[in-house]
Target: MFS transporter
Amino acid sequence: MDQQIGQQATVRRARIATFVIFGLNGLLFASWSARLPSVAETFALSPGGLGLLLLMAGFGSVLGLPLAGGIAERLGTAGSVRAAGSLLGLAMTVVAISLLNGWLIPCGIALFCFGFGIGVWDVAQNIEGAEVERRGTKTIMPKFHAAFSGGAFVGAMIGGLLAHLGIPLWLHLLVLIGLGAIVVAIGTRYFLPAHTHHDDDLPSGLPKRSRWAAWKEPRTLAIGLVVLAAALTEGSANDWVAKATVDGLNAANSTGAIMFAVFVLSMTIFRYAGSSLLDRFGRVATLRCCLLAAIVGLLIFVFAPNIYLAAIGAVFWGAGAALGFPVGMSAAADDRRYASARVSVVSTIGYAAFLVGPPVLGFIGDHVGVRHALLVIAAVCLVSLASTPAVRSQRDGAR
Model:
């Protein structure tokens, strides 16, 4: 009995710690994303030029994401987040110095390292979240991602306020580095012990598999397609909703940051509500509604003639982006025997889209405008509707 109570307390502490780490990740990423118009101004970049700079972070993530599962196995999820956080802190320091001095190339190199660190951190936190969810009794992965969105909302508001006040971005970044170091050091102490992520308690005689085998599984790849659409829907907003608002509607930088905050707030609310929606309607029906909402929201945002209608589009866009990623993580972890490998694969696909997709939109934006480039996302969401049955769980039945 005492041992069971102790295990429950450990899981409860890990749940809170995972919630905090997700929130910090969102705050750091969105606080940076909300200031991207300032980055473009500092280096006098066109949308395509800004996209190329952001692509450096995407390349870093593409390299880091496939390796993240192995890093988590070697260092544990807590060790992976600490190592990734250290790399992010170093990279953001170089970015801050580059912005202060107008150094474009060092900034790009630092963003490559930033992307690598983000990839390792994100896979590690999702592996931790999936394990915490499995050891509990309720669906909680959407709430972890709601913490990410909540942190992103706070980060976006901070970014918008600091932009309005004229606070230099380099100073903004240095303060974030200090905050992040403290929270990572404390929060990861309460992650699940490393040995609980292993399958020592599984039935004996199970075949040993390479962690690369999950890349050949049709269901895992189909889940990855759903997550790809959701990640592109979310990632494009992180990088382009502020810029699209500024350029497409002739708004101020602070207004662009606030529009991003509207998107994030909508996504956060629907992620908090996601657990009850999933329990009532099932994964497949819920995700289909999310994808349709994203398509509608994007169409409204792209063709809106004013700020107010664009904000309504951002609300639908945020709601549509809310549940694809967390549900994909849970679906990938349904079979505890191969959860780590499958979560790593799905995370890799999702975060590759999250980080590489938006820079590609920047290049398209050079030819058709940033707002109209966002229509590509609506097309991807439409295609991914066909893959939603892959996320069905046994308790969903036919839903």
User: Anything to note?
Assistant: The CA atoms of residues 17 and 137 lie 18 Å apart.
